[in-house]
Amino acid sequence: MTISQLSRPSSGASPDDGMTDQEDKASSHRPNFRRNVRRGAIVLILIVVALALAYVRSGSVAVVTQAVVTGILTGGVYGLVAMGLTLIFGVLDIVNFAHGAFLALALFVTFWLVNSMGIHPYLALAISIPVMFGIGFVVQRGVLAGAMGKPLENQLLITLGISLVIENTLLLVFGGNPRSVPLPHDHALPIFGAVADLSRVLAFVGALLLAGALYLLLQRTRLGTAIRAVATNDVGAQLVGIDTRLIYAVTFAIGTACAGAAGTLVAPLVTIEPTTGALFNIIAFVVVVLGGMGNVIGALVGGLIIGVTEQLGGLYLPGQSPLLSVFIVFVLVLFLRPQGLFGRSA
Amino acid sequence: MRKSWLAAMACAVPMVLSGCGGSAPAGAVGTVGGAAGAKAGATIKIGSLHPLSGSSAADGQQMDNGAKLAVEAVNKAGGIKSLKGAKLELLSSDTQGKPEVGQSEAQRLIQAGAVALVGTYQSAVTTNVSSVAERNKVPLVIDVSSADSILKQGYKYTFRVQPSSTVLGTEGAQDLSDVAKAAGSPVKKVAILHEQGPFGSGIRDAFEAKAKSLGIAIGPDISYDAATVSDLTTQITAVKASGADVLVVSGYYRDGVLAAKAVNTVKPALKAVVGVADGAFDQSQFPKDTGKAGEGYFDANYHADMTKPAMQDLAKVYQQRYGEQIRSGAVLAYDSVRVIAAALEQAGDSSPVKVRDAIAKVSLESLIAQKGPITFGDTGENNNAAPILMQVQSGAVKQVFPANKAESKPMFPATP
User: Fold this and answer.
1) Confidence band of A279 (pLDDT split at 50, 70, 90)
2) Are A325 and A333 in contact (CB under 8 A)?
């Protein structure tokens, strides 16, 4: 389901649309149902084969369990970062290269709040989200509004420029030294025989909650309806009296706020440097395309897949960059479903 | 529109991959004004090439600062006396950590009249800069860059102050074995975790060869991508499953912190965690960033010799001037500029070729802990370069081995 697709109330899936909505299940097309069972079985077999192979390669159940748990937890964070990116793409058609830089900005906001004001790292969410929302709103209104509807390259270069400005301003103000935000009482939690830091588990839970909140916002509120309307057809939305310029700015701001939330949630996990955001940038783009562009739930699922792939890939191909396995899966998925896992076929 | 997305991604991803750290070259300022009023030949220019922006900016700026302080110290002491007290001038330049930028900046500095270059931190950048130096017959003194391959080209104009990866890995294995034996708890099996680039694998090769000759088993040997890694828990779980009694880590700062966090989470049964040329475990920031998790960690690395009064003075000056603790990289840059100054003094001539010949004969007391004065062999390696062993003790990095460089005694085993 893409954002624009959500706005079509149970119009039924197109013949080649594999992922059916709730509504479609209710109307229960027989061939669709059977195809889904078949696809489900294939996915299940793939998972079993992947795990068996990982076991053969590593020779230890503990290592495989750890890889899966770590993969799911980091995958949640990837999904969280990608959510804002996919929302902005779905509604504004902007490839936002500044997303990682916004995340870095949120990291430094969190660092500053925790270090100078003595605020608990998670309470910083209450400040970082509105601050990043505001920054996103201003940036869209001030810098990007003029490029709306222009060729993709224009917006792309503008966002790339914004990311350079943010990263180098952070370098100028804070210097390049690594910083950290320690989480008080952080400790290891046992999970199915594996272990994970409390901070990672909380970041994962936070990612799920935010995904849910974003989904509800898009589905159940007037604002969400307006956003979906603009995503589907902005001229049409304008005709029924929606202020599309405002919706563009608000959507960009929500996307940036997602980067803000992600920044604060991952602050205890990462070393904070002006370039930290770039770490997430590439993965986030892969996740967005994998999950289906403009699809919030797709971003979350895509994040989980990439997270687990990265970890298991490290076991299959030791000595190679985990990005290798990520891109193998990425290419395979795009080969089989060019529109992304949850994307609507064009 | 889908097509344009893919096209946009195709052209933009390489840009992001290459690290978006662009900014104007910092060296563009301050080279012009000197001509007015000054006597001809009164200043001698030295080029400093370091990553002042991008992901290694913190280290690059430290090293540039170190070079600046060395130039100031030489000038304050009366300049180059054999050249009628000629003053040194540092031309600072930003490589952005990119080989092609380093190459063109090196060319630019040479055209601006630099008689010698110092740099550059990343081995890939240094490789390119050394070929420019060779072609133009201008000496390059490498402060930091460990890859063995740089000096295997048979270049005559490149010298290296820091120990090569072979020396770091070999001596690291020897030091670890010595410390463990002295404590009556010899090492049986070492797991190696290293970043997968030429730096990490170079250290791994040297360490492994020496450790095997000392009767230490190696396994598993795990690598990771330092640029993208965000968690090392799975890797440390594999170390735990292997039953190794010491973990050796070789990587950069951010991944070193991740490794320490993962060890603290997984709690493998280890006698010690030992960095070999690790960029994290001997940084003063490391104990602060990891808290109790980093206590007892060793690192075998080049390090400023804090037992020398001159080094303690330099640390004080640096702290006052730049408001942060000096790192060993900055001290190496400081020493490299001193090497060039000493060569100028000895040559009594500021032509690059004469300076090169004088550098080859230099013998200079170093502020880095090493076996003797800085002297260069035929290949351009520093003959006396060696790592020393440091350990995090009570939240501070201490020099612990060999005994003549030790600030305190090594604690072994140091179960993490």
Assistant:
1) confident
2) no
B234–A66 CB contact, under 8 Å: yes
> Is the pLDDT higher at A4 or at B349?
B349
Q: Which fold has domain A3-9+20-336?
A: ABC transporter involved in vitamin B12 uptake, BtuC (1.10.3470)
DSSP 3-state helix, strand, coil percentages of chain B (rounded to 5)?
A: 45, 20, 35
The answer to whether B200 touches B248, Cβ cutoff 8 Å, is no
**pLDDT tens-digit profile of B273-284?**
999 999 999 998
pTM (predicted TM-score): 0.83
Residues B140 and B179 in one domain: no
Are B244 and B356 in a shared domain?
A: no
What whole-number distance in Å separates Cα of residue A319 and Cα of residue B195? 9
Closest residue to B58, CB basis, from A152, A176, A320? A176
Q: Are residues B225 and B319 in the same domain?
A: no
> Which helix (H) or strand (E) element contains residue B300?
strand B298-301
Q: How is chain A split into domains, by residue range?
A: 3-9+20-336
Mapped onto helix, strand or coil, the DSSP state of residue B271 is coil
Query: What does the block give as tokens for A305?
Result: 């897949």
| In a domain? residue B195 | yes
Considering the domain architecture, whether residues B249 and B392 belong to the same structural domain is answered as: yes
Based on the fold, state whether residues B183 and B234 are members of the same structural domain.
yes
Per the structure, the count of domains in chain B is: 2
**Contact yes or no for B55 and A278 at CB 8 A:** yes
Q: Which helix (H) or strand (E) holds B276?
A: strand B272-276
- Strands B396-401 and B388-393 come out as antiparallel
Domain at B144, CATH number:
3.40.50.2300
Spatial separation of the C-alpha atoms in residues A100 and A98, rounded to whole Å: 6
Q: Hey, of A81, A114, A167, which one would you mutate to test binding to chain B, going by the most B CBs within 10 A of its CB?
A: A167
Classify residue B378: in a domain, yes or no. no
Torsion A127-A130-A136-A139 (CA) sign: negative
Cα–Cα separations (whole angstroms), residue A253 to A133, A162, A243, B115, B321: 5, 15, 15, 53, 41
Using the beta-carbon criterion (under 8 Å), do B224 and A314 form an inter-chain contact?
A: yes
B57/A188 CB distance under 8 A: no
Q: Assess whether B60 and B148 both reside in one domain.
A: yes
At A26-81, the pLDDT tens digits run: 455 567 788 888 888 888 898 888 888 888 888 888 899 999 999 999 999 999 89
pLDDT digits (tens, 9 = 90+) for A314-342: 888 877 777 888 899 999 988 888 888 88
Range of the domain at B121: 42-162+308-361
Hey, what amino acid is at A263? G
Residue located via tokens 């499953």 = B241
CB < 8 Å to A55, chain B: none
Q: Is residue B337 part of a domain?
A: yes
Chain A residues with CB-CB distance to B2 below 8 A: 338-339, 346
Token match 């989200």: residue?
A: A129
Mutate to test the interface with A, among B9, B192, B225, B265 (most CBs of A within 10 A): B265
Task: Write down the residue that tokens 């730096």 correspond to.
Answer: B199
Whether residues B230 and A269 touch (CB distance < 8 A) is answered with yes
Q: Which of A306, A327, A253, A344 is nearest to A77 (CA)?
A: A306
Whether residues B286 and B325 fall in one domain: no
Indicate if the pLDDT at residue B5 is higher than 60.
no
* Domain-embedded: residue B293: yes
Q: Rounded to whole angstroms, how far apart are CA atoms A256 and A106?
A: 10
Same domain? B398 vs B270: yes
Q: How far apart are CA B108 and CA B31, in angstroms?
A: 12
| Structure tokens given for B329 | 């990289």
Cβ-defined contact of B285 to A177 (cutoff 8 Å):
yes
Do B293 and B260 form a contact (C-beta atoms < 8 A)?
A: yes
Indicate which of A55, A60, A66, A197 best probes the interface with B, i.e. most B CBs within 10 Å of its own CB: A66
